[in-house]
Amino acid sequence: MQLFSELKKIFLEQQSGLDLITPQLATTVLLIEIMRVDGELKEQEKHYLYVFLEKEYLLSKQEVKELIQLADSHLEQSTDYHQFTHALNQQLTIPDKIKLVASLWEMANADAHVDAHEEHVIRKLADLLHLRHSEFIQAKNQAFGR
Question: Among 24, 57, 31, which residue's Cα sits nearest to residue 109?
Fold first, then answer.
C-alpha cells in the first residue's frame, strides 16, 4: 500500500508541475531548444530570443534574463517536449500555435541558415502542437515572408 501512496504522490507532483508551465515559459523553452539543436549558440540567435521575448511579452531585460534562466532549468530537467507542448495545447488557439511555429522558424533562420536538425525539431513540435501540415507550411511561409 505504501508503494501506491508513493506513486500517487509522484504523479500528483508531476501534475502540479505541469500547471506551473505558462505559455511564456513553454515558448521560451522551445525557442532555446531550436537555438541549441544545431550544436552552435550564435549571437544572432541570442539576440532574436531577447528581442522576441521583450516585444512579445512586454518584459524588461531583467525579466527576460530570469525567464531564460527558468526555461534553461526546465529544459535541463526535461526528457521530452510533452510537458511544454501539452501546456501550450491547453492554452493556445490554432492561430497562436501557427504564430509560435513561425517564431521557431525565425529562430532557426536567425543565423541566415536553417539546419536540417532545426527543421526536424520544428516539424516534430508542430506535430506535438496538433497542427495540420497546411498550418505548418503556413507558419513557415509566414516566417520567411512568402
Answer: 31
Can you read off the three cell numbers belonging to residue 16? 502540479
What pLDDT, in 10s, does the model give residues 62-90?
A: 999 999 999 999 999 999 999 999 999 99
For 33-59, how does the pLDDT look when each residue is reduced to its tens digit (9 = 90+)? Answer: 999 998 888 899 999 999 999 999 999
pLDDT of residue 9: 53
DSSP-assigned letters across all residues of 2-34:
HHHHHHHHHHHHHHHHHHT--HHHHHHHHHHHH
Q: pTM for this one?
A: 0.85
Q: CA dist 113 to 21, 42, 76, 106, 109, Å?
A: 30, 11, 25, 10, 5
Q: Which domains does the chain have, with CATH numbers?
A: 2-143 (1.10.3680.10)
Shortest CA distance to 47 belongs to which of 39, 55, 58? 55
Question: What type of residue is 5?
Answer: S
With a CB cutoff of 8 Å and minimum separation 6, the contacts of 111 are 40, 42, 44, 45
- Alpha-carbon separation of residue 132 from 12, 19, 21, 76, 114 (angstroms): 32, 26, 24, 29, 21
